[in-house]
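Final report, closing paragraph on structural work. Over the funding period we assembled a curated collection of sequence-structure pairs, and we close with a single example.
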Amino acid sequence: PIIPLILEHRELSKLKGTYVDALPALMHPRTGRVHTDYNQTGTVTGRVSSSNPNLQNIPIRTDLGRQVRRAFIAPPGSQLISVDYSQVELRILAHITHDPGLLDAFARGQDIHAATAARLFNVPVEQVTSAQRRLGKTINFGIAYGITDYGVAARTELSQTEARQLIDNYFTQFVEVKAYIDRTKQQARERGYVQTLLGRRRDFPEFRPGAHVNGAMKNAAEREAINMPIQGSAAEII
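Its predicted structure, as stored:
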């Protein structure tokens, strides 16, 4: 019985310390508003980060978290709007890999997660269930981050064996994505770096001769190498 209370306490402590107490102290004395700093060189991939305060990390998943979001209001006569590129990283993955399955789904204007699920479960796209689409979404986003069967199982109700079968099936359907992953890992190991479409490099000292790293660290570096050209290129486009 104590566990839910501990979780609630953790959530309340986080909201109070990180947002309720901190945000008013960051208001500009002249404007009475918060003004974040956007950092173009704050992450290794080039993805923009935000600080003082971090406005990319305002909670939304819980009712209490959403109350914090309601504190952000536009000045009179203005509106806050949300603008986003549609599936930008998956589109870049399709562009980099030239995978026929991904390219076809985007060319047809299909829901990319439903289209992936249709291939994974061998059903027409219009017959894909919401549960199947969720699995397609998990795999789509996970592949770009080098997800493992353990990672898929942790995010779904699948066993590790079922997750492995799903990943294997994905690579059977999207063979050029698998080729990209293998090629990128090989490049990271041989050259010690990978790069974005516009030439931004990320070095991986883990693969230098004589580097003292264990297998887990090398596996993590390989997953980051897979993601770098995709997330970094998205950052450059945005």
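The radius of gyration is 21 Å. The chain has a mean pLDDT of 92. We thank the funder for supporting this effort.
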